[in-house]
Amino acid sequence: MDKDFLKRLHGKMMKQGIRMNYYPACSRPDLVLGISPHSDSSSITLLVQDDEIAGLQIRHKGGWVPVKPVPNAIVVNIGDVIERKRYGQNLTFNGVCQSIEHRAATNVAAARMSIATFVMPDDEVELSPVETMVDDYNRPIMYKSIKYGDYLRYTLSKKMDGKANTELLKVGNESD
Ligand SMILES: O=C(O)CCC(=O)C(=O)O
Ligand SMILES: [Fe+2]
């Protein structure tokens, strides 16, 4: 893979979306989530979170691990686009390059804000594994091809539900 691969993957017009989240203080954080479990449908996400108040949690070994804020740091998350590209290439990357499932918890004591910016490919970019890296025996294609614009619209039409979006588009899953 050459060094411009990731840039080229974004096609003619790389896009950036932004979501600003405000989570009011909540008396029952055990019952109320700030944002439901999901993975981002971007290629990468840059997240600025409050320096003091934790809320972001990532899925790990069936549990939820809080991401402790590091002052002045930006959290970089891998999104679904990278997962889909890497899966077909080399199965040893399966664990490393998954778009991470995450959620935000609420907090009794204080409100929290976060700002997520999503780097996204052009709508016309076809998401499919890189051909030279696919091998029917050892590195089979794991995802169906889909145009990014269609994938994005599909994910936006669904409620956030963990890794349901990437799961559904796996080769062999129900909509084949
Ligand atoms: O508030 C957070 O830390 C997470 C926000 C998030 O995951 C999102 O906006 O996609
Ligand atoms: Fe997210």
Automatic annotation (TrEMBL):
SUPFAM superfamilies reported in the protein's UniProt record: Clavaminate synthase-like
PROSITE patterns reported for this sequence: FE2OG_OXY (PS51471)
Stretches assigned to coiled coil: none
Gene3D superfamilies for the chain: B-lactam Antibiotic, Isopenicillin N Synthase, Chain (2.60.120.330)
Fe2OG dioxygenase domain location: 14-121
Transmembrane regions: none
Keyword annotations from UniProtKB, A to Z: Iron, Metal-binding, Vitamin C
Domain of life: Eukaryota
Gene Ontology terms for molecular function: L-ascorbic acid binding; metal ion binding
Protein name: Fe2OG dioxygenase domain-containing protein
